[in-house]
Specification:
By secondary structure, the protein is mostly helical. Helices cover about 50% and strands about 10% of the residues. A three-stranded antiparallel beta sheet has the order 3-5-4. It is globular. The relative contact order is 0.09.
Length: about 240
């Protein structure tokens, strides 16, 4: 009921009423809480991959909050970034809260093992490492992840390869619309603290109008941000990925 966003896993034996709890949760929380329920078993084999998964979830969210869903093409071409931007639109429209209830969640693991959903980025790798340490090796450890755990994941040589779908998607988006976006990203990558507008103009050779248009496009797509006159790449993992290209 509070303002702090939560992720909750509800687990137990079959036929114990988990689905009933999900379907009735919103009724117990008042009219200000909306519920978008989706049974992941309805996904089938998902030949279109993660875009098809997010497409199905978006359809349920749009019905719950009375907001038009995204186009299928956008979700299939750039699934993660498109879905993230859609959730921001949903959040802006909400008067209260939203529960996104995903039933039969183990279907996600089935799709990963079938190669339909890529194994990318950090959360999955952290949990996989923990499960290997505790359940496969039979060792004990604190269930709270540390900075060392995160560093171990991102320093794995395979990490950025596994996350290529996300990184390639953001990089590919930077060739659409305003010209010079990729050049700006490449110039910013070695500078986590950011660069001034003058430094960017000098390094890219772009005129003021083109540079500002490209920066505005990148900012609108949540790739870069401006802080006290300095422009920087927003997502540290993406910055590191660009450095490796």
């Amino acid at each position: 009921m509070g303002n702090q966003l939560q992720s909750v896993v509800l687990y137990g034996h079959r036929r114990m009423g988990k689905t009933s709890i999900l379907l009735n949760a919103a009724n117990c929380l008042g009219s200000q809480i909306q519920l978008a329920y989706f049974n992941l078993l309805r996904l089938g084999d998902s030949p279109q991959g993660v875009g098809e998964v997010l497409m199905a979830i978006c359809d349920e969210i749009s019905q719950a909050v009375k907001l038009p869903s995204l186009t299928d093409a956008d979700l299939l071409n750039l699934p993660y970034r498109t879905f993230e931007r859609y959730l921001k639109q949903v959040e802006a429209k909400l008067d209260g809260g939203l529960i996104i209830a995903l039933d039969e969640f183990e279907k996600i693991e089935d799709l990963i093992e079938a190669g339909k959903i890529p194994i990318d980025c950090m959360g999955f790798q952290l949990v996989r490492g923990y499960n290997n340490f505790v359940f496969e090796q039979g060792r004990s450890r604190n269930p709270v992840f540390t900075i060392e755990d995160v560093e171990a994941v991102i320093n794995d040589p395979e990490f950025f390869k596994r996350g290529r779908y996300y990184f390639d998607g953001v990089w590919g988006q930077a060739v659409r619309g305003a010209k010079g976006q990729q050049a700006i990203v490449q110039v910013l990558a070695p500078h986590p603290e950011g660069l001034s507008l003058d430094a960017l103009a000098q390094s890219t050779g772009m005129n003021d109008a083109d540079l500002q248009e490209a920066l505005n496009t990148l900012k609108r797509h949540d790739v870069v941000e401006e802080t006290q006159g300095s422009w920087r790449i927003m997502v540290e993992l993406f910055r590191r990925w660009v450095l490796q290209q």
